[in-house]
Structure formats: structure tokens, C-alpha cells
Design goal:
The chain has about 325 residues and is of the alpha+beta class. The protein has two domains: about 140 residues, no CATH class; about 100 residues, Double Stranded RNA Binding Domain. Helices cover about 15% and strands about 35% of the residues. The strands form six sheets. It has a six-stranded antiparallel sheet, with helices on one face. The protein has a five-stranded antiparallel sheet with strand order 11-12-13-2-17. A hairpin with a 5-residue loop joins strand 19 and strand 20. The N and C termini lie close together (about 5 Å). The N terminus and C terminus are likely disordered.
Length: about 325
């Protein structure tokens, strides 16, 4: 008897993010490709309060009311993207860092007393802002414990872009199964609207995965109370959620084959006692099916091999 593992889906906005220095940047002015280096906007979704260019062609981003935690997260993600931390020094409330990528150099000066930071991209480097995301591409957004090593902090969450509308809003699904939860804490007649997993996703998970700066870009979405075709059971009411599970209709719409639906758990999720077959685990869908044999609600799920179980599994925390 093992817990089903959940897959997390969030809707995020990318369309309002523009690169103020794409044209007329030092790199484009010189005709050289230059060294593109990540900005805070591209890594931790924190836009600068002021942007300017100096006489020597350097680009300066100024940030107000920024915490040391945000700076630390930015530096950590810079390293994860292949940048080198050449030096880091602390003098009183001041923190100084030099980061390089190829011929490009970026310097950070953080003042802890005023919670301000100046990030300077020197000639030969220019800031990478947000680029349009296409369906199927992978996006880093938020952090969640995944490698089960608490000493190195939470890891960036990888999301796959499932869909994108004309406004640039993207529907994302986590690339890996991040945690294990019961669909509902008790075996009873239940709908998505009143399930404990819906509450957990939009409270505990949402608060753990996204910083205060990241949360505003997670849109509240109208989530339909879908049910298996051919059943006349009441699916409950539609809901407004930031994070949700796919429905039966959606999982078949966005994944065209069983192979595409196979999901692997993170190392942390594996510690919850999951069963894994050939690298794949089971993951919940939100569609509810009343099961006359069970005497209470069952929820649809995706099986180890990526096939969709429309018969459903018990909503309580144990699944045979």
C-alpha cells in the first residue's frame, strides 16, 4: 500500500517582461555577440527599479528593498547556469561579488543597511532578460526541496510549458513529481473543490515553493470540475486556484502518448515511501469518479507506465 504522488501545475505570466537593453546595447552597438549573462529578472523574477548606462558602455541595474536572501538566491542560480563566482567579500554591511561568464563580467554591490543592490554589467557583457517561452520548453521558477539534502537548500523547480495563449500566459507542469500527498485525508465522497490536496497545493506548497516576489506571477485560474465521461456523478463546483492538478481531459489533450506521461520522482519524494517501476511513479489527476464498489470517491491517476487509470484510485492516503 503506497501513497500516490502528485504532479503540480501552475499558470504563470511572462508577457509583460521586456528587455530594455536589447537594442542599442554595448554588444549590438559594437557588432559583437558579447557575453549574455543572466539578470535577476531572468533568474529570480525581480525587476530592477532603475536601469542606466554609463559612459564606458556598462549597464547598471539598481534594486531597492531587496533582501540578502534574494541576493544569495541570485548568486546561487548564476553559478547553476554556468557563471563563475570569481570573488566575494564582506566589509561591514557591504557585500561585493564578481561573477564572470566567458569574457563577460558582472559585479554586485549589496548594502545591507539600506537593502539596496547595484548590479553592473561591464562592456563585453549584457543582461539576459526573459525570452518568449515555447510549448515544450523548460522553465525554472520557484524552489522546492528535491535532492533530500537540507544542507544545500531547496532546488529550482523545473516546469514544462504545456500551453501558451496569445497574451503570453503559460500553463506549466512540473517536470518531476515533487511530493506525495493523499488526494483527501479521509475515504469519503469528495470533490476536487473540497479535497485536502487542493488546499495543500494552494497553501503549504504555494508558500514553500514561491517567494513573495514570485507569487504575483502565479495567476489564479478557473479550474473546471471535470468528471469521467459517461458518469452522471456530481463533480462539484469549478474553483479558482493558483496551483492545481490536471484533469482526465487535459492529460489526454497535452500528452499524446503513455511514454510522454511517464513521470519520475525527485529524491526527496522517494523518501515518502513511493513505489517506482522502471523509473516511473503514479501521479494524481483531479477528476473524481464515484466507485460503487468502494462506497466512496475515487480519483483518476496516471500509472507507472504513463497509462491513464480512468477507473480511479481511493482518495485516502493508501492505494493498493
Amino acid at each position: 500500500m503506497k501513497k500516490l504522488i502528485i504532479t503540480l501545475v501552475a499558470v504563470l505570466v511572462f508577457s509583460i517582461l521586456l528587455n530594455a537593453f536589447t537594442e542599442g546595447s554595448p554588444a549590438s552597438a559594437s557588432g559583437s555577440a558579447g557575453a549574455e549573462m543572466p539578470s535577476m529578472l531572468s533568474l529570480i523574477w525581480r525587476d530592477a527599479d532603475e536601469k542606466s548606462r554609463t559612459k564606458d558602455g556598462s549597464v547598471v541595474y539598481l534594486y531597492n528593498d531587496i533582501s540578502y536572501t534574494e541576493i544569495s538566491r541570485f548568486i546561487k542560480r548564476l553559478i547553476e547556469t554556468g557563471c563563475e563566482l570569481e570573488s566575494y567579500a564582506v566589509r561591514g554591511d557591504m557585500h561585493f561579488a564578481v561573477v564572470t561568464r566567458g569574457e563577460g563580467e558582472m559585479r554586485l554591490e549589496y548594502d545591507g543597511s539600506s537593502s539596496t543592490c547595484a548590479v553592473t554589467y561591464y562592456p563585453g557583457a549584457f543582461p539576459e532578460e526573459i525570452k518568449p517561452y515555447s510549448v515544450g520548453s523548460v522553465v525554472l521558477y520557484g524552489e522546492y526541496e528535491q535532492d533530500n539534502d537540507l544542507t544545500n537548500g531547496a532546488e529550482p523547480i523545473e516546469w514544462i510549458v504545456l500551453d501558451k495563449n496569445e497574451a503570453g500566459d503559460c500553463l506549466l507542469i512540473s517536470k518531476y513529481a515533487l511530493d506525495a500527498e493523499a488526494y483527501n485525508e479521509q475515504s469519503t465522497d469528495i470533490t476536487w473543490e473540497h479535497s485536502t490536496i487542493r488546499n495543500w497545493l494552494n497553501s503549504e506548497f504555494y508558500d514553500a515553493a514561491f517567494s513573495d516576489n514570485e507569487k504575483p506571477r502565479v495567476l489564479t485560474s478557473r479550474v473546471t470540475a471535470d468528471i469521467k465521461i459517461g458518469y452522471d456523478d456530481d463533480p462539484g463546483n469549478d474553483t479558482d486556484d493558483r496551483v492545481f492538478l490536471l484533469s482526465l481531459a487535459e492529460v489526454n489533450r497535452f500528452f499524446m502518448s503513455d511514454t510522454a506521461r511517464i513521470c519520475c520522482p525527485t529524491g526527496c519524494a522517494l523518501t515518502k515511501g513511493l513505489t517506482v517501476l522502471d523509473g516511473g511513479c503514479r501521479w494524481w489527476l483531479r477528476s473524481i469518479i464515484d466507485d460503487d464498489c468502494l462506497g466512496f470517491s475515487a480519483a483518476a491517476f496516471v500509472d507507472y507506465d504513463g497509462s491513464v487509470s480512468e477507473a480511479g484510485g481511493p482518495v485516502s492516503n493508501e492505494l493498493y
